[in-house]
Specification:
By secondary structure, the protein is an alpha/beta fold. It folds into 2 domains: 43 residues, no CATH class; 164 residues, no CATH class. It is built from 6 helices and 10 strands, in the order E-E-H-H-H-E-E-E-E-E-E-E-H-E-H-H. Strand 1 and strand 2 form a beta hairpin.
């Protein structure tokens, strides 16, 4: 590199630069000032691309970055989740307590499948199949049914239930082609199981056959037996007739009725007076 004339920056005297020197200190021979020589550096040109130049415009701060919305949701959940859990727990406790205190008891209905063990044994033998396979049509096919408890004292036999039944009756309510099935004796038969025999025209009941007042699942009457025309029961109170039987005006025959003024269990609970003439006036076909 060829050196040009260099002067001392202190006294403007010409500096003597040794041949071949590119960098280092030299002393001015006039004022003894030491000057550091640097090698020649070329000019650097750099192109800078500016998208936008704010010239003579007021400065505005850049918009703040908004926090992601999901962060806000997380924050709200953290704050309110404990309150929601407590509210739901209290609501569940309140619902359980109110549900147990205001439980609704289902209204009693009519029995469609016998539940009394003796009646079950009867239908299984009568139809020769298990009670689970019997249909409403099977029960409705029996038009005549007579149930009596035989003591067996006269012929030295064991006490037993005797079921007499038929699938048709004559004009007087007597069985045609009657069949009989004998079964081991029990203390009693629940009369609600007889509600399943919806085709009955004639029904005759002996002793120890009655409704169980402890059984609240079924109604305590025979009003679903719409075809019933002849009814006999051991010492039934006249006051119970219209309560138990359907369509009193269609009843053609009654037997075993107690016409005394003694109150039946049902009516004594209501403390009602019995007007026998008024009750019997409903049976217009007798």
């Amino acid at each position: 590199m060829k050196l040009t004339k260099i002067v001392c920056p202190n006294c403007n005297g010409t500096l003597d630069i040794p041949e071949g020197m590119k960098e280092g200190f030299v002393s001015c021979k006039f004022c003894n000032t030491k000057i550091y020589l640097e090698p020649h550096k070329p000019d650097i040109t750099q192109n800078i691309h500016i998208d936008k130049v704010n010239y003579n415009t007021p400065y505005t701060a850049p918009p703040k970055k908004e926090s992601p919305k999901y962060l806000l949701g997380i924050l709200l959940a953290v704050l309110f989740l404990p309150s929601i859990i407590i509210f739901l727990s209290l609501s569940r406790l309140f619902y359980k307590s109110s549900d147990s205190s205001t439980s609704i008891v289902a209204s009693p209905s009519y029995c469609t499948t016998p539940e009394d063990s003796t009646v079950i044994s009867f239908v299984e033998q009568a139809f020769n199949k298990p009670v689970s396979e019997l249909t409403p049509e099977d029960y409705a096919s029996i038009q005549y049914l007579d149930i009596q408890k035989k003591s067996g004292k006269s012929d030295n036999t064991a006490e037993q239930w005797v079921f007499s039944y038929a699938d048709s009756v004559d004009e007087a309510g007597n069985a045609l082609e009657k069949k009989t099935i004998s079964l081991p004796s029990t203390d009693s038969i629940d009369e609600s199981s007889l509600q399943a025999f919806t085709g009955l025209v004639s029904l005759n009941l002996g002793e120890n056959i009655s409704f169980s007042y402890d059984n609240t699942n079924y109604k305590q009457d025979l009003k679903n037996l719409n075809n019933l025309k002849y009814y006999a029961e051991h010492a039934i109170y006249a006051g119970d007739l219209s309560r138990i039987l359907p369509h009193p005006e269609e009843i053609l025959g009654l037997s075993g009725v107690n016409f005394s003024n003694v109150l039946s269990l049902y009516f004594s609970q209501e403390n009602s007076e019995i007007n026998i003439e008024k009750i019997m006036s409903e049976f217009t076909s007798l």
